[in-house]
Amino acid sequence: MDGDKSGLLRELRIDHSQRDQPVGGRSRWRLILLLLLLLCLAAAVTAYLLLRGQRLEVDTVTALAPAANRGAASVLQATGYVTARREATVSAQITGTLTQVLIEEGEQVQAGQILARLDDTAQKAAQAQAQAQLEAASALRDLYLAQLAQARRDLKRAQDLVDADAVSRQAAEQAQTQVETLVAQVAAQEKQQQLARAGIDAAAVQLGYTVIRAPFSGVIVAKAAQAGEIVSPISAGGGFTRTGVGTIVDMDSLEIEVDVNESYINRVQPRQGAQAVLDAYPAWTIPAHVITIIPTADRSKATVKVRIGIDQKDPRILPDMGVRVSFLEAGAEAHANSAAAAPLNGVLVPASAIVERGGQSVVFTMADGRAHAQPIKPGASYGELRLVDGLSSGVEIVRAPPAELRDGSSVAIHKQ
Questions:
Q1: What CA–CA distance (Å, rounded) separates 304 from 119?
Q2: Residues of the chain with pLDDT under 70
Q3: Which of 58, 187, 189, 347 has the most CB within a 10 Å radius?
Q4: Same domain, yes or no: 265 and 357
Q5: CA 405 from chain center: how many Å?
Q6: Which has the closest alpha carbon to 384: 81, 74, 77, 80?
């Protein structure tokens, strides 16, 4: 009986050596692996959110439609800006307080037109003082002339008495000296009159400086001061003195300046035909020509500046507009106007804007502060530009996408 009970107890006893056997070990390792996976997932999500929120700084450019004859006659493409050869910031020649500013941005003005007026109180007072000095000098001269006339009569009587031996010769000599003295005084007063007249002229010039006029005909592009502000031809070192009233541009002097890679400058010649396309009007082709090649190179950019004349003036052409210029082959101007010149399909973009992503060529377009990868089909090259298919003209794209730029990345346009 006791032996049976002992056997039953042994069967009911728990073997503690089996608690840490492989079944329990597998559960622990599974828990560790699950925690590691959760940590990796959290790190990946955090990295994604950080990268998505990071704003990359990029440069942008506009995709342009090619000109009708660009494929046949263009030997080089270059980008630049519209510039004004005749532009002036108009200021006063003296320091003063503005009482009137008669200009607004966009207003057409003519040469000599009054743009602003300064307080002229001091200048008018100086002019009145000079006028009074002239009048005083004239009155004193009249006095000396009257005294001179009397002295000459006294001299005549003294000479008659000397001839009659009625008086001594000394009396006649004294009368002669008085006449000569008065002649000298009259001459001195005439010089004083000339000095007073010069003072009046100087005061008139200073008074004229209080009226600011347009140096040439043009358009006001900036209004820099308001009535009540102080203007000065030189900077006073403070923030309350203006050095200019406004900026005027002669729109007839507009031309284009482009930077040509020095490797291709041999394709450009003076008086060579060209075509210009503004970034603002990608479908409008403007006839142009090469004015001159500026004889110096930019060492940092390895470019040479070229001046381009605009053959067709238009109010839509404004200073500092971005422009793309196609340099034409010799004799291609007639071909440019030919109806047989067929347009190219696609748009032109800088070659640097095309990158590889996921095994295909893409450009990054801009929309709502983000970059979006747009697949394209690259075509022929034209200098620094590339003809691509799959993109619309006028679209803003990233000029040189960085390696870390991805579809949907938040971007900021680089400020020059």
A1: 48
A2: 1-26, 44-54, 65-74, 167, 235-240, 330-344, 382-383, 414-416
A3: 347
A4: yes
A5: 31
A6: 77
- Tell whether 362 is covered by a domain: yes
pTM: 0.56
> Of 208, 239, 261, which marks where a domain is finished?
208
Residue-level pLDDT at 396: 87
What is the number of H-type helices and E-type strands within the chain?
6, 25
Q: How far apart are CA 187 and CA 276, in angstroms?
A: 71
Domain end marker among 182, 208, 234? 208
- pLDDT at residue 236, as a whole number: 53
Q: In angstroms, rounded to a whole number, what is the distance separating the alpha carbons of residues 167 and 159? A: 9
User: Is 238 found in the same domain as 98?
Assistant: yes
- Dist. CA 193–CA 85, nearest whole Å: 47
**In this structure, what CATH number is given to the domain that contains residue 73?**
2.40.30.170
- Whether 389 and 33 have beta carbons less than 8 Å apart is answered as no
CB-side neighbour CA atoms (13 Å) of 245: 32
- In this predicted structure, what is the pLDDT of residue 363? 92
Q: Would you state the pLDDT for residue 63? A: 76
pLDDT single digits (tens) 283-303: 888 999 999 999 999 999 899
Residue 173: count of CB within 10 angstroms of its CB: 13
- For residues 112 and 216, membership in a common domain is answered with yes
Interatomic CA distance for residues 217 and 253, integer angstroms: 11
Same domain? 65 vs 107: no
CB 214 within 8 A of CB 85: no
Report the pLDDT value the prediction gives residue 73, as an integer from 0 to 100. Answer: 53
Task: Please report, in angstroms and rounded to a whole number, the separation of the first and last CA atoms in the chain.
Answer: 103
- Torsions phi, psi of 371, nearest 5? -100, 135
Can you read off the two tokens belonging to residue 149?
């006339």
Distance, CA of 103 to CA of 99 (rounded, Å): 13
Rg of the chain over Cα atoms, rounded to whole angstroms, equals: 45
Residues 234 and 358 in one domain: no
